[in-house]
Every structure is written in structure tokens, then in C-alpha cells.
From TrEMBL:
Record protein name field: Sporulation protein
Alphabetized InterPro entries for the sequence: Spore_0_M
Cited Pfam families: Spo0M
Top-rank taxon: Bacteria
The species this protein was found in: Oceanobacillus kapialis
């Protein structure tokens, strides 16, 4: 009885550990691994084992910023089972990493949480960081922007405006500034937002922020009229020519 009481507050209870085959992945790919459970000091009934993909994003209220944890998706590994004292059990798992998982760039972190639902007890858990790499389509855009002389200044995962909010409450913005090339001194910055649309295609929203020129330019900048928003799609078909596409768009709006 005493051991059961201790297990209910997390002392001597079952332990869980998720081990991934690969900690680097691309959104839309299959993540594989195994969940290992080691029984505690007493027999425990586990209602279910689950995995969740998590990240943080920034919210702003009353001019104050704070970070919020959010579950991107959750996957059930197994139903109810009984774990005997010090028993060792393994469950292989696989799931598709959601396509709208943000990249682990800048201060954006993504991690996998493993949990055991145990009635009347503190659920033991495990956290494992994963590195989310860009898809070939997103990588083509980022490489094109870099080749045109832009340098990455900031990546921010923040609360999404309702007009562009999708399944998740946040967006991830990539902010670039022209350090060299044809747009140095012409643009202040460009910002990129990537949204998967399925079938290997990605929609890109690009904000082009022109540098103020003369009094009219300063007036437009003060009113926020120096910013242009352009949408275009990237796929395996047009990815090789995406640098020229981006250059044509910037030339048109700058």
C-alpha cells in the first residue's frame, strides 16, 4: 500500500523513454522509433501511451510578449495495459510529422513528448528535441533569397492574425535584410511565410518593405504604405527557377 501511495505522487512509478531512429526530419515525413517502459515499485494500470509534437510561439497582449506551449499533433501508441513491477516493455511507433510543423530555426524549438495516462497518479513523461529541416521546396526559396544578397536577421514563431490563421494558432516568419547585391539600399527587408498546400506544394507569402526615398517615400513609410504582399507557390516543377521568379517579383514591387 505504501508503494502505491508513493507511485501516485511519482515516486517509484513507471518510467517512459522514447528513442527516435533519427532526430532530424522534414515535415510530412514519417518519424519512427520505440517507446520503452520500465515498471516501478508496484503494479500500475496505464490507460494509454501517447506521443505529442510540441512547440512554443509568442503572444502579445497589452504591449507584453510571452511564450505559449502548443501541441501540434498527438498520437496514441497503445491502449490500456498493466505494467508489473520492474517490467520492461517496448512499443515501436511511427507517425507522419504534420506538414505545418515549424522549422527549428532561430529560437523556434520542436520537441516530442511521451506520456503515460495513469489514473490517480502523476503521469510520468519524457521530452526529446527534434530538428525539423526545410523541405526541398522551402530550401529552394531560402537558397534563392540568400543568393540574391539577403541575410537572415530573425525567425519568429508568433500568434497568427485571424485573417491568415490555419489549423494552428501561430505562423513562422523569416525576416531577411539585403546585405549585398542589387537590393542593398533599395529595400529595408523582406519577410517570408510558408504554408504547405498539399501534394508537395508550398504557398509563400512575401512581404516587400521598400526603403523610403524622398518626402513622398517617408510619408508612405509613416503610413505603412511602403509594404507589398505577394503570394506565389513553389513545387518540385518550378523550384529550379524560383530564384528568377523571386527576382521578378521583387523588381516589380520595388
Amino acid at each position: 500500500m505504501f508503494n502505491k501511495m508513493l507511485s501516485s505522487i511519482g515516486i517509484g512509478s513507471a518510467k517512459v523513454d522514447a528513442q527516435l531512429d533519427n532526430t532530424q526530419c522534414i515535415a510530412g515525413e514519417t518519424v519512427k522509433g520505440v517507446v520503452k517502459i520500465v515498471g516501478g515499485k508496484t503494479e500500475q494500470q496505464i490507460d494509454q501511451i501517447y506521443l505529442s509534437v510540441n512547440t512554443k510561439y509568442i503572444k502579445e497582449r497589452d504591449d507584453k510578449k510571452y511564450s505559449v506551449d502548443v501541441i501540434i499533433d498527438k498520437f496514441k501508441i497503445t491502449d490500456s495495459l498493466l505494467v508489473k513491477p520492474e517490467e520492461q516493455i517496448e512499443f515501436p511507433f511511427s507517425f507522419v510529422l504534420p506538414e505545418d510543423t515549424p522549422l527549428t530555426a532561430g529560437r523556434t524549438k520542436v520537441w516530442l513528448s511521451t506520456g503515460l495516462d495513469i489514473k490517480n497518479a502523476i503521469d510520468p513523461g519524457d521530452k526529446d528535441s527534434i530538428e525539423v529541416k526545410p523541405s526541398p521546396e522551402v530550401a529552394a526559396v531560402l537558397e534563392a533569397v540568400h543568393t540574391l544578397g539577403f541575410s537572415l536577421r530573425e525567425v519568429e514563431t508568433k500568434e497568427a492574425p485571424r485573417r491568415i490563421r490555419g489549423r494552428l494558432p501561430f505562423i513562422q516568419e523569416f525576416e531577411y535584410v539585403p546585405r549585398s547585391g542589387p537590393y542593398k539600399g533599395v529595400l529595408d527587408e523582406i519577410e517570408l511565410l510558408f504554408t504547405p498546400t498539399g501534394n508537395g506544394q508550398v504557398e509563400v507569402i512575401m512581404q516587400i518593405d521598400k526603403r523610403a526615398r524622398g518626402l513622398s517615400g517617408l510619408f508612405a513609410e509613416a503610413l505603412g504604405q511602403d509594404e507589398s504582399y505577394v503570394r506565389f507557390e513553389v513545387s518540385k516543377t518550378n523550384a529550379p527557377e524560383i530564384q528568377q521568379t523571386i527576382r521578378n517579383i521583387i523588381d516589380q514591387y520595388s
